[in-house]
Amino acid sequence: MEIIRTVKEMKSKVKGLNKTGKTISLVPTMGFLHEGHLSLIRKAKKISDIVVLSIFVNPTQFSPGEDFEAYPRDINRDENLAIENGVDYLFYPNKEDIYNNNYSTYVNVNKFSKYLCGDVRNNHFQGVSTIVLKLFNIVRPDYAVFGKKDAQQLRIIQKLVEDLNLDVEIVPGEIIRTSEGLALSSRNKYLNDKQKKEALGLRKSLILGEKIIKEAKENRTEIIKEIKQNIKQNYPNLRIDYIDILNYENWEKEEELNGTVLLAGAVYIGKARLIDNILISLY
Ligand code: AMP
């Protein structure tokens, strides 16, 4: 595996690879790799000749007061995991190289950046869309693999590619969980064992919501209320950031649930903010 630390070097590497006709997959991450990331790398390996893993804790997607500085980092461990899982190039730029002194260009996927995390994390998705578009321009991948764990992010990137006619195929990866059901996240590092157990309350409450949605007896507002009540009653240490239900295709909040429905939630526990979701097909 080759480690590439500058945009210039990455671009020149890609130029060489393009001449060979080899296909490239990009797996963008913020590092502190876990099985969720590794499953995306393995998926990328299956669909293309070359896998580029990027590790960049992107400052523009953190709001003031969020955990940019504290975000877990361990590049040596990540390097070893990347090698073990067959990454060809680890792109590990520094933030000055990505964002120059007078950096001023941002991209917004307007409609899909509303609701859920978009309503509670200021400019988060502007930062995400911008860094992903920059990474696409630097690496020029044929495929880019994103986890369904960040369902809104995945939807935004799909829309970015569609709206800006980008030549990259977005490949979704399934959510990887602990045996008990907790979605893996670099931020789980902030949790002790007791908190990890309590954090399962989000998953369990979303499963309850899924059941009610499939029974189709109640409308959106009532179902959200029930899920929130379940969390408050059974998991008192979880602080609800949001619980919401959207049409995943048009990103509308429709009281009558139809088509592909996204049930998503975010909770705080201790220092950590955790998200999870279930995509439900009502066809
Ligand atoms: P992050 O490093 O958290 O920015 O995530 C990088 C990529 O890994 C994103 O596409 C995430 O959706 C994906 N990812 C994070 N956690 C998981 C998980 N538990 N299962 C599958 N993909 C994940």
Note down, in words, how this protein is organized.
There is one protein chain. By secondary structure, the protein is of the alpha/beta class. It has helices at residues 7-20, 35-47, 75-84, 95-98, 117-120, 124-139, 151-163, 193-215, 220-234, and strands at 2-4, 24-29, 50-55, 89-91, 143-147, 169-173, 239-247, 260-269, 272-281. The strands form two sheets. Strands 1-4-3-2-5-6 form a six-stranded parallel beta sheet, sandwiched between helices. A three-stranded antiparallel beta sheet has the order 7-8-9, with helices on one face. Helix 2 (35-47) links the parallel strand 2 (24-29) and strand 3 (50-55). The longest helix is centred in the last third of the chain and has 23 residues, at 193-215. The mean pLDDT is 97. Bound molecules: adenosine monophosphate (AMP).
Topology:
Elements: E1 2-4, H1 7-20, E2 24-29, H2 35-47, E3 50-55, H3 75-84, E4 89-91, H4 95-98, H5 117-120, H6 124-139, E5 143-147, H7 151-163, E6 169-173, H8 193-215, H9 220-234, E7 239-247, E8 260-269, E9 272-281
Helix pairs in contact: 6-7, 8-9
Residues 29-30, 36-37, 39-40, 146-147, 149-150, 173, 175-176, 183-186 line the site of adenosine monophosphate (AMP).
